[in-house]
Design brief:
Elements lengths: L2 E6 L6 H11 L3 E5 L2 E7 L5 H8 L4 H4 L4 E5 L4 H8 L3 E3 L3 E4 L11 E4 L12 H11 L7 E5 L5 H8 L4 E6 L2 H13 L5 E5 L10 E7 L2 H14 E13 L3 H10 L2 E9 L2 E8 L1
Length: 276
């Protein structure tokens, strides 16, 4: 797949803040380089002019004046990931590693993730926050939804923690394919994968919902999540910054959910809600 790449020097603004703004604009892969940050957006459906239009609303003090945009033709993205993706241990209980790594500790719950272009290697604070929150819950006999599944890492963890049925949904073809491959790679048997959005959920019910997406999608979809969440069920959300907490809590409470927990890492946050 061809991409456009924005190269952004990191000066006084943190990487997390820039990534949050670019993710909302449609960029879906990020790479740290000595010069700063590289952010990628699929070329399909975009032109240089349309991307500049998406980015123009990002404040100048966030993106700076010296960023650049270039076209990047299709390449071996797996090889690119292999150069920078190292195993991640979360809460001393879970290790997320690629197939080309040796497990650093066989006693840990192991998730083998070939990241490709998908979000969910454990390196980003929001993935780690979701994993930590999941480790604090009981999952036996639960039906679980992983919304915006990316690499499938949270769906796979849910099954390994005892969930009996997991539905993983993503709107992107490459994420659906990547999740299917990782489900097979981890020998999971209780996960089904579908392409789509919250419109798929109307006739379903879940004991727990995982949604590590971004603020705008969460604000739009929280009422749909609340509708399909069982009484006493829990909604876990992340993919947003600390300053977005109040607007998300307000949206969730309006949908009949009560805040039951929160976690913060750097500028990133995850929230838990219970349907009373």
């Amino acid at each position: 797949m061809d991409y456009y790449c924005a190269s952004i020097p990191l000066d006084s603004v943190s990487e997390e803040i820039i990534v949050a703004f670019l993710a909302e604009a449609g960029f879906d892969m990020f790479e740290n380089v000595p010069e700063g940050l590289r952010a990628f957006i699929p070329a399909e459906g975009h032109t240089r002019e349309s991307i500049l239009e998406l980015v123009k609303d990002i404040p100048a003090e966030i993106i700076g004046e010296h960023w650049s945009l270039e076209f990047v033709p299709d390449q071996n993205w797996n090889e690119t990931w292999e150069k920078s993706f190292s195993p991640v241990i979360i809460a001393r209980q879970v290790v997320i590693r690629a197939p080309f790594h040796v497990s650093p500790d066989p006693s840990l719950t192991e998730l083998i993730i070939e990241p490709k272009m998908s979000f969910g290697t454990g390196h980003h604070p929001t993935t780690a926050l979701m994993v930590e929150a999941m480790l604090a819950e009981k999952w036996s006999d639960k039906q679980v939804l992983d919304m915006g599944c990316g690499s499938g890492v949270l769906a796979i963890l849910a099954e390994k923690l005892g969930a009996t049925a997991v539905l993983a949904i993503d709107i992107d073809d490459w994420a659906v394919q990547n999740t299917e491959e990782n489900v097979e790679r981890n020998l999971c048997t209780s996960i089904s994968v579908q392409k789509g959005n919250a419109g798929l959920l109307s006739a379903l019910k879940f004991h727990a919902i995982l949604a590590n997406i971004n603020r705008n999608i969460l604000l739009h979809d929280i009422p749909s999540y609340a509708d399909v969440l069982e009484q006493g069920g829990t909604l876990f959300i992340s993919g947003f910054l600390v300053q977005d907490e109040s607007i998300l809590v307000e949206k969730a409470e309006a949908a009949g959910l009560s805040k039951s927990g929160a976690r913060i890492s750097d500028q990133w946050m995850m929230l838990e809600f219970v349907k009373q």
